[in-house]
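Recap for those who missed Tuesday's class. We walked through two folding examples back to back. For each one, the amino acid string is listed first and its predicted structure tokens come directly after. Nothing is annotated here on purpose, so try labeling regions yourself before you check the end of the notes.
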Amino acid sequence: MHKTQPMNWRSILPTGLLLFFVMATVPAQPVKQGALMTEKLTSTILHDNKIGLDPNRTIKVYLPPGYATSGKRYPVVYYFHSIFQNVEQFFRDGRVVGLLDRGMANRVSSEFIFVAADFSTPTTGSIFENSPVSGRWLDFTTDELLPFIDQKYRTIRHRDSRAIVGDFMGGRGALKLAMTRADLFSVVYALHPVATGIGYTPFPLVEVDWKKIHQANTFDDLGNDGRTKLFVTVCQAFLPNPNRPPFFCDFFMELENGVPKPQAERIIRGYQHGFLLEEELPEAVASLQSMRGIAFDWGRFDPTQSHVFSNQVFSRKLEEFGIEHEAEEYRGTPWNRVWTDDGRFYTRVLPFLQRHLVFDSPH
């Protein structure tokens, strides 16, 4: 009696199917995990304010999986969160660390240190400017945060190995630092930045409750109206007036016989030439041309369509000045396509950092 030989499935399966079968039988390798550290930095710079800022700032530092054993130095990516958010909320559900771990394990990006300081305030949060009223946030970032991280961790202390990534209002901050401090940073990616330029809605038609602002005695009196709160913050940053309580600023609109009237000089000085980045571009050409990489994107379905329009114009102006950059409008809102498993941080930001950052220390 002949014995039945076991079937040699390798000999009969097509090559592609065989490869799939073999890979399916190999246990998946666990993704190596980085470490999330919490630091405290007491700021001297942020003592100078009128809104009750706490100078004790929390900083979250993600160290890549190889940091503990490699002994080498790493590039640093600084992340700026948006308004109405703090750094604890940003990391709470673990998705950010998960995306970083997976991106580095899958070689989407080489390993880097990821730093996110807390830019929250008693009002709306930082809009990333220097103000004697709402805080010198740019100076805090460049003169305190960067040295603190460089002294505490094994960083590559060179602009070619430093990047800024910002989201929404943090995207404005990222572009602002690229425009003004290219001596410290060489790569920037702004996720749906706002305040890049003048939208198509005339300023007096922007939905801000100026009557409520002028009647308020405290910031809490503004209620849950986020846009009205934001414009108080903008005025505190760009129209500071320490002698005008309770908000210690002047306003783009003043009441005349109980009716809000635009103040042209303030709108030009504080809004167009202050808050919006577009008007600063001519002075920033040299800085932006020295960057290793510039990118920003925006969601087509932002409920505030002026954000879409202004980013399109901002890209065209960069083009006019011969500034190399990547700009992309995508199908989505500013919030639903960024931090998902296959969202823009994973599929756009991480590969962009890989292409433009210098990952090897010269020493």
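Example two. Treat it independently of the first, because the proteins are unrelated.
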Amino acid sequence: MRSNSGKLKMIYSLAALACVIYLLHDLNGSFDYALPRRLIKVIAMILTGISIAFATVVFQTIAHNKILTPSIMGLDSLYLLLQTTIIFFLGSTHVVVMDKKINFFICVGAMILFAFLLYNALMKNGKYPVYFLLLVGIILGTFFSSISTFLQVLIDPNEFLSVQDRMFASFNNVNADLVWIAFGLIIVVFAIGWRYIRYLDVISLGRENAINLGIPYDSTVKKMLILVAVFIAIATALVGPITFFGLIVANLAYQFFNTYKHSILITGAIGIGIIALVGGQWVVERIFTFSTTLSVIINFFGGVYFIYLLLKESRSN
């Protein structure tokens, strides 16, 4: 415990240092203009780190697989389908596209409704196992992606630019009002989810063991999966999809913290996520001078890390 506590202090010290450097580096006296805008970006990155780290660790515990991420459920694909469909039928100048608040609530509401209906249909009374749910999620995600690609082929090239802006996560044009709305939602969802953290320590032992130890497995898993969907929906609607981010921070937390306690794993993953996002955004702005986006860098390293995990898993077997 002392070792893990020390590691947590070190990670959050680095996270705080990264935030301070990002906020204050090269301001050149433009405090009134630059500092508030940087602060909004930092808050958005912290909220994204909290949402995706929490959701990924919980999802992997429920699935008993450290390679799967919540994106396998098709929420990212649904987000792109929503954006593509709206722009295809209404145009990029429609109020639903231009008003970021309306767009945010439509996307969050649709993704949460999709997850709720999916979980309610497939997990009612424990009729189907979690892996069947994952299989259906993969199929639906592929279906959504296929429709999105089809519409993107037909769409006007000028309108496609608006769709392309939403295909990759970006912190450069985050709306300040949405950040505060997301902040309130995430705080509420996090508080609800934290009440079930102690159950995850037992759920990680497997369904039969959890039931024998008195855990209401089916109802707890369903609630946690809905919370995962809410977290991913908020983060995706706020900044866009980041496919491999959760995979990276969750597995780094597993390797860095030698514990089964999810309170430590989730807290550590959040700290690692904040360092990765804030540090990565600083690199994008100062080294690459906005020639790329943070999501492209994360997906590149995440893809390499994913291959490494697959090779490591195959060797262990």
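Answers for example two:
The two ends are 30 Å apart (CA to CA).
The mean pLDDT is 87.
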